[in-house]
């Protein structure tokens, strides 16, 4: 078997299946073990106990599929043409959802394509044995992608590519074929610290190190308990995930748009009114998020996130009424966040009243309105 030619064919087949970049690497991740263990020992994984459960296995991908000697790493762009970042983030009455979650869940789509790639390889080489991974099982996707030359690790810990930014999903095929490996690319973040500076909660505690317990993506998706009060005001209107570190990254000026119809934004999730989302009952939530990654957080956490965003919204009697109407309908955790949001709204109402009184007195005294 001419493995050099087969590797070239694999990359071509991957492109034909919708993967924008394909790389090949060996499975040695021994250099990642110490950093992972330090991160876990510091408790920065928060409630993601699954990160610690198979810590040893994470840096040993060869144990995930017997006989594997290589990883075929792929990337698929997900940024939609009508992303509408500014329109949503700058309007506190709208809910911001991380752009990766606006369309259908990527896991099934990418896994199906990876299986198709595996079958094409098997047709050319009957000895192939493979297993596909898409954010599944304890596998370190980003280090494998970096070793396979798909990009470098940015200071926000995401994989960056100079020709495609970071708006892409990763997936892998573990295979038993001794394919020639690709070389990593040079790191090109330089002295830039834009992602560290922009993070609303300062979750990037140092270059290449994120404290998940502070990260809005973790707080709105992975955390199943109450969101710590210190982070609630900083979340703004982000109700599912956060893209700030990607938005500010200079390399994302070169980001490539997706042509996958499944990643197109759903109408109900693209720049939605917070109050409209707040009116959904659990049945509506399940129906509107069918086939979406959002569904996995569950209705209670969805309501929790919305309550925080409503608390951060400008004063509005309609928000206060809506919050009160929902109290006692889900669970105690949601009620806690409703009470916090109500207090925030009442504080703003008091501030509005004081401003009106100040302006009224100024007018009565014949003073300029900005006196």
TrEMBL record:
InterPro entries: 4Fe4S_Fe-S-bd, 4Fe4S_Fe_S_CS, QueG, QueG_DUF1730. It comes from the Bacteria. It catalyses: epoxyqueuosine(34) in tRNA + AH2 = queuosine(34) in tRNA + A + H2O. Gene3D superfamilies: 3.30.70.20. Keywords: 4Fe-4S, Cobalamin, Cobalt, Cytoplasm, Iron, Iron-sulfur, Metal-binding, Oxidoreductase, Queuosine biosynthesis, tRNA processing. It is an enzyme of class 1 (oxidoreductase). Its cofactor is [4Fe-4S] cluster; cob(II)alamin. One of its GO terms (molecular function) is 4 iron, 4 sulfur cluster binding. Its main location: cytoplasm. It is found in: Cytoplasm. GO terms for biological process: tRNA queuosine(34) biosynthetic process. Monomer. This is Epoxyqueuosine reductase.
């Amino acid at each position: 078997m001419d493995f050099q030619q087969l590797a070239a064919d694999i990359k071509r087949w991957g492109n034909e299946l919708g993967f924008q970049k394909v790389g090949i690497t060996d499975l040695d991740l021994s250099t990642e073990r110490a950093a992972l263990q330090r991160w876990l020992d510091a408790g920065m994984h928060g409630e993601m106990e699954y990160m610690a459960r198979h810590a040893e296995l994470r840096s040993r991908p060869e144990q995930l599929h017997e006989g594997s000697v290589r990883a075929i790493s792929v990337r698929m762009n997900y940024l939609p043409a009508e992303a509408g970042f500014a329109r949503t983030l700058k309007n506190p009455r709208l809910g911001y959802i991380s752009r990766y979650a606006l369309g259908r869940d990527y896991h099934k789509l990418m896994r199906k394509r990876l299986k198709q790639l595996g079958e094409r390889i098997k047709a050319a080489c009957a000895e192939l044995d493979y297993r596909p991974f898409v954010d599944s099982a304890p596998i370190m996707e980003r280090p494998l992608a970096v070793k396979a030359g798909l990009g470098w690790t940015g200071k926000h810990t995401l994989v960056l590519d100079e020709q495609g930014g970071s708006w892409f999903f990763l997936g892998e095929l573990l295979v038993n074929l001794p394919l020639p490996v690709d070389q990593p690319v040079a790191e090109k973040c330089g002295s830039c610290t834009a992602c560290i500076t922009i993070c609303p909660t300062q979750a990037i505690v140092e270059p290449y190190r994120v404290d998940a317990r502070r990260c809005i993506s973790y707080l709105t998706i992975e955390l199943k308990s109450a969101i710590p009060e210190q982070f609630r005001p900083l979340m703004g209107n982000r109700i599912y995930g956060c893209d700030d570190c990607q938005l500010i990254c200079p390399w994302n000026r070169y980001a490539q748009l997706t042509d996958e119809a499944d990643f197109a934004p759903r109408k109900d999730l693209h720049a939605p009114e917070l109050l409209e989302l707040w009116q959904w009952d659990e049945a509506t939530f399940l129906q509107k998020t069918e086939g979406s990654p959002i569904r996995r957080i569950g209705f209670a956490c969805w309501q929790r996130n919305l309550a925080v965003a409503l608390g951060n919204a400008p004063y509005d009697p309609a928000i206060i009424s809506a919050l009160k109407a929902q109290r006692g309908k889900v669970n105690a955790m949601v009620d806690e966040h409703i009470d916090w949001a109500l207090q925030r709204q009442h504080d703003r109402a008091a501030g509005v009243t004081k401003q009106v009184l100040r302006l009224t007195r100024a007018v009565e005294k014949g003073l300029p309105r900005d006196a």
